[in-house]
Amino acid sequence: MFVTWPFLVLVAIPMVSAYPSGILQKRPFEWDSTKYLIAFGDSYTYVQGTHGLQNYSFIGDLQNFEYDPQTLLADKIVQIQTATAEGGPNWVEYLTGCGLVEGVTSPFDCEQQLWDFAFAGADISVEYTPLHHNFTVSLVNQVKQFNDYAQPVLKQTVDQSHALVAIWIGINDIGDSSKYDVDFPTFYNELMDTLFSSVQTIYSLGYRSYLFMNLPPLDRRPGNLGSADPSPNATQITWYNDALSQHAEAFHGRYTDTNVMLFDAHSELSYILDHPSQYGIVNTTNFCAGYDQPDIAWNYKAYGCPTPLSTYFWYNSGHMTSHVHKILASAVLEKLEAWSS
Ligand SMILES: *[C@@H]1O[C@H](CO)[C@@H](O)[C@H](O)[C@H]1NC(C)=O
Ligand SMILES: *[C@@H]1O[C@H](CO)[C@@H](O)[C@H](O)[C@H]1NC(C)=O
Ligand SMILES: *[C@@H]1O[C@H](CO)[C@@H](O)[C@H](O)[C@H]1NC(C)=O
Ligand SMILES: *[C@@H]1O[C@H](CO)[C@@H](O)[C@H](O)[C@H]1NC(C)=O
User: Fold this and answer.
1) Which of 79, 102, 132, 197 has its CA 20 to 30 A from that of 295?
2) How many beta carbons lie within 10 A of that of residue 341, not counting itself?
3) Average of pLDDT values for 269-275?
4) Is pLDDT of 307 > 90?
5) CA of 90 to the centre of ligand 4 (A)
6) DSSP 8-class letter at 37
7) Which secondary structure element, helix H or strand E, spans residue 202, and what is its range?
8) Which ligand is nearest to the CA of 134?
9) CATH for 22-265, among 3.40.50, 3.30.9, 1.10.150, 3.30.450?
10) Helix or strand (DSSP H, E) at 210
11) How far apart are CA 255 and CA 210, in angstroms?
12) Do the bridges between strand 51-52 and strand 59-60 make them parallel or antiparallel, or are there none, so unpaired?
């Protein structure tokens, strides 16, 4: 099991969890001196870049896989209503404070630089699930692209001893595969084998601190509520999260000079769903139909939404609102502080 060291679990709110957040630590970790967050994942994590594919990436896509150093160095994070999949800043932006302000921000201008290679709609690998679009960059390809085009440039400025690699992936995988005719625990372990061989590539580039986020309670998405056959169901999510936690632990066992952190996003988000009023949330069961309309901030009633978007847990059928990302980021931050030596 994951152990928390040097502290026991320090949480503001009591919770019971099958996969408690924890750190497996062999080297000093200090969030306050972390200068770089290198992120991989899907729409929960992607940020729009001025040199990215609109609505999908910070930089490049599968058809534009290669990029030159100038493109990366000049790229800026865009912050507008449509620049994330949540209608506002997402968890990595709140966590680093990088790209939070309206307009564009160069990662170089941030105290904690966010280098975000997540791609909206990504799964882990085409070995298991088809691409959402022919331009989608899977997690495996995000890491390949990072290895080939980003790291050769970033290594000139990024001090890896002050870098944290954050990975949140599986949201699309578990949905896309939920009706497969397979033994799911075995299948999720295969997915994790592939994910962690990409993590090993990142390790070989010199990165030693890792943050893994597990899957949210996707069985409680609006589309799944009241369904006799939610897709994915709670059992599948438990199996996936177990596989992630076991592989994260095994990775740390193999590479003992790493810090491997697991944030139990499942528990945190379940707690918010169960205690919405503590967070100013009134709507956990549905999303506002006009969520992506330009006037949604003030004109929500015109779209049949009794309360503002920020009082909703769900932004749309599969994503949480920016408000929830903000709460999540502060919970992650609290852990990262607690895990700091
Ligand atoms: C990006 O998403 C916005 C909001 O959903 C949409 O209006 C716009 O057309 C999309 N852009 C592209 C290039 O798909
Ligand atoms: C990608 O898919 C689009 C839409 O289906 C198609 O028009 C385009 O030719 C495809 N591009 C490539 C490179 O396959
Ligand atoms: C969820 O789906 C899996 C795979 O179809 C099935 O084995 C399991 O019993 C389901 N769990 C629930 C709670 O429905
Ligand atoms: C939740 O949102 C839906 C869709 O906007 C709306 O119809 C419903 O009345 C809301 N529920 C509450 C409790 O506000």
Assistant:
1) 132
2) 11
3) 98
4) yes
5) 23
6) E
7) helix 184-204
8) 2
9) 3.40.50
10) strand 209-213
11) 12
12) parallel
- Residue whose Cα lies nearest atom 7 of ligand 4: it is 305
Q: Where are the domains of the chain?
A: 22-265
Least confident of 8-22, 24-38, 66-80, 96-110: 8-22
Residue 18's pLDDT band (cuts 50, 70, 90) = low
pTM of the model: 0.94
Segment 166-209, tens digit of pLDDT: 999 999 999 999 999 999 999 999 999 999 999 999 999 999 99
What is the distance between the alpha carbons of residues 138 and 294, in angstroms, rounded to a whole number? 30
Residue closest via CA to ligand 1's atom 4 equals 82
Whether 340 is in the pocket of ligand 1, judged by its Cβ within 6 Å, is: no
The residues with which 23 forms a beta bridge, in sequence order, are 261
Question: Has residue 141 got a pLDDT over 70?
Answer: yes
Nearest CA to ligand 3 atom 8: 235
- Asked whether the beta carbons of 75 and 49 are under 8 A apart, the reply is yes
DSSP SS3 for 130: coil
Give residue 210's region: left, alpha or beta (phi > 0; psi -120 to 50). Answer: beta
Distance from the Cα of residue 88 to its chain's centroid: 15
The answer to whether 246 touches 188, Cβ cutoff 8 Å, is no
Nearest residue (CA) to ligand 2, atom 5:
134
Rounded Cα distance, 27 and 248, in Å:
16
**Closest by Cα among 73, 124, 115 to 96:** 115
Residue 236 CA to ligand 3 centre (angstroms)? 7
| Minimal-distance CA residue to ligand 3 atom 10 | 235
Distance 321 CA to ligand 4 centre (A): 14
With pLDDT > 90 as the criterion, what percentage of the chain qualifies? 90
